[in-house]
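Quick one:
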Amino acid sequence: MSTRSNIAIQEKDGLIPMSTRSNIAIQEKDGSIRVIYCHWDRYLAHNGKMLFDYYSSAAKLRKLIDLGSISRLAPEIGTKTDFDNPKDGQVVAYGRDRGEEDTEADYYPDLETYVKSFEGVGWIEYIYVFDVKTKTWSYFTNNDKNLLPLKDYVLGIPFKTA
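Output:
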């Protein structure tokens, strides 16, 4: 994973947007956490809304987590695609679509251990956690480790793909 900060770099032809990173996690009934990295569109109105609308099923979320780290979240998990020219509306995964190794989900025995793993890590802004027991999404930020209900933010926001 890259450790570049989230900035826009100046090029001859204008600004080039840099990534806005997030983690996507599932907390199983035993309290354990599996988590993947997502490179683009971490903000609540995009990844937060998409997770809430399209990945509130533990079964579908587990399939997403099984892909390992992803470049882009989308409504459908899809099938293998060209990483540089992906199919619209589907997830783009580093392992499946670009052939990268060591992209598997990380495992933590509990949420507390997972949250502590962020000490000193400043390049992941939003962390989304789906609790299988309660069937709810929550999130926290790297600056504020308080878990907040995602529904309080995303209800009423229409999802926009552009």
